[in-house]
Amino acid sequence: MEVVVTVETIVEEAELPDSCKKVFSVIIEEGPLSSKEIVSRVSCSTRSVRYALKRLLDNEYVERHPCLEDMRQTVYSANINLFKGEMSALRRIQ
User: Are strands 62-66 and 74-78 parallel, antiparallel or unpaired?
Assistant: First the structure.
């Protein structure tokens, strides 16, 4: 029996607050977003989104990049390389 491991499964198992999980889900579903775009899509305050982004950055779930359309802004995207490593490690254990 093969166990399917997804990025969402890994995030749900991680010890992160609900705000982090909401922010990360939006980033995965909608691609790179600025913090203002994330606030408009998540039912959390600006402060909660900032905190969630900091926690996600600290845990390397998210990467920060300059916005190519407006270099004054920063966009956040999922760190897919981290999850590829975790998923392959989980598959080897199975």
Answer: antiparallel
Domain extents in the chain: 7-89
Q: How far, in whole angstroms, is CA 6 from its chain's centroid? A: 13
Q: Is 56 helix (H, G, I), strand (E, B) or coil?
A: helix
Phi, psi of 33 (to 5 degrees): -140, 150
Query: What one-letter code names the amino acid at 72?
Result: R
Dihedral sign computed on CA atoms, order 84, 24, 10, 55: positive
Query: Residue 65's closest CA among 94, 37, 42, 34?
Result: 34
Considering the domain 7-89, what is its CATH architecture?
A: Orthogonal Bundle (1.10)
* pLDDT, tens only, 35-84: 999 999 998 899 999 999 999 999 888 999 998 888 889 999 998 777 66
Helix (H, G, I), strand (E, B) or coil at 71: coil
